[in-house]
């Protein structure tokens, strides 16, 4: 197979100059070369090594004490270094702004673009020829991929891997998913707080990221489906021996990629994104995936819309039986064959663009042609899937321009209650109860005066990229305690925030534009009737247009939808330039900067 690129080693020294040579090996500027060299020689690498044509490889380290999901990367990086060295490169490890999904307030969603921005600056401004992206916890994956795409130097991702399975009294307990269940059990009085904590802690038994098909497993699987990490590597549990081995192989491979000049723009093509959309449906992937992939596509300059998720993804069946849509967890996914087995099933129906190139220099088709399902309880064959039509449905109407619903988590209970009218099997109507942020929801959800019943549709607004700020995972709301006690668990939830990928709630999410950007949610009132038609893909407030227009005039006269003040400089800066979730919630001015290693050349000398 022919490989792209122009940087292959040629005999007699005709290899094009490496990027890092502009710093370390620049005969035209010996003073500056000495200045650049001396400080990096400080930790024991000699001038000879720096000037022998070895690629300088960054290890973008996302693990730290503040980022426990990715903390194992501190160990894995040692094996990455050995691989880099073995292949003739020099490794320079550096920290990435930490993003911890469950630790960062007000939401880790605020930090994806900050980590992106920082990493772009590092990859561009330092002597790096290639980079290993240490991915894992939800937003570390898109932040790293987006930055590598913007700079466009050779890059390979390495997952930290999922945690081992959680267990409690003989049953699998999945990270995140168990929290939603434990919350309901406690609200219904079935467990006390001590029981709540031990149930939740049982789901996190080792190092690694969430073991459910939450956003972490989703995004790590999609990084592989996009072709950005070695085949078969995404699902290996963090503590496994193979995880160390794949770290070593990743280090070796990035050095070759630099020689081949195999860059993110060669891999992240529209074909690759379509593959990822289809894999996302087949794995029962998170509703955060469209935000991150649409954002990544914009940074790499590929056309990708929210409608592509329905066009290419909706018809795809669910194959992977992982919580929250199914039963099993990360270890089981790995033992069943991981991403290659899923891709192979999709290939058998012609649903994969097999020519899409991947980081190992081979195509997706070549990598997955022989991948077998090794446990059909966990990965189901495509001819008898767990569920048909497991993708996302895109909805639009006077409530928002777009929002999505994950079809694979619609439960039988939900179907029976809301989608059982034989004349209208895809639509439901009900009165809205509107909450302005999670504090309002927590304060009022159990208030009997709200008269919530099984026909109520719960709304959460003020939770988007501008309103929250950062778009928080707060849309999935439990039913009030008086309904839980009657066995009613899930009411339809709609909002302009996100939902944890570990939640199985059939919510309508990522509404764009958000209330804070003047979306229809801003003029919705408690008591309005709303109609959701999943068949037609519509979501509307059933209030006359004149009344809606009157409310909008009133809202605008009052200065727009109110949200909390900025608390940090970054909150203010990001609010001033972030786009909506439909288009990736990216920093809009950053989209103008593409492939900057090629389009902007090498930055100026610093002295
Ligand atoms: Fe970090 Fe789930 S909280 S991976
Ligand atoms: Mg999350």
From TrEMBL:
Molecular function terms, GO-annotated: dihydroxy-acid dehydratase activity; iron-sulfur cluster binding; metal ion binding
Domain (Dihydroxy-acid/6-phosphogluconate dehydratase N-terminal) ranges: 54-367
Residues in Dihydroxy-acid/6-phosphogluconate dehydratase C-terminal domain copies: 377-585
Pfam family, one: ILV_EDD_C
Record keywords, A-Z: Iron, Iron-sulfur, Lyase, Metal-binding
Domain of life: Bacteria
EC number from the UniProt entry: 4.2.1.9
Keyword presence, Nucleotide-binding: no
Sequence segments annotated as region (Disordered): 1-26
Group of enzyme by EC: lyase
Protein family: Belongs to the IlvD/Edd family.
The protein's name: Dihydroxy-acid dehydratase
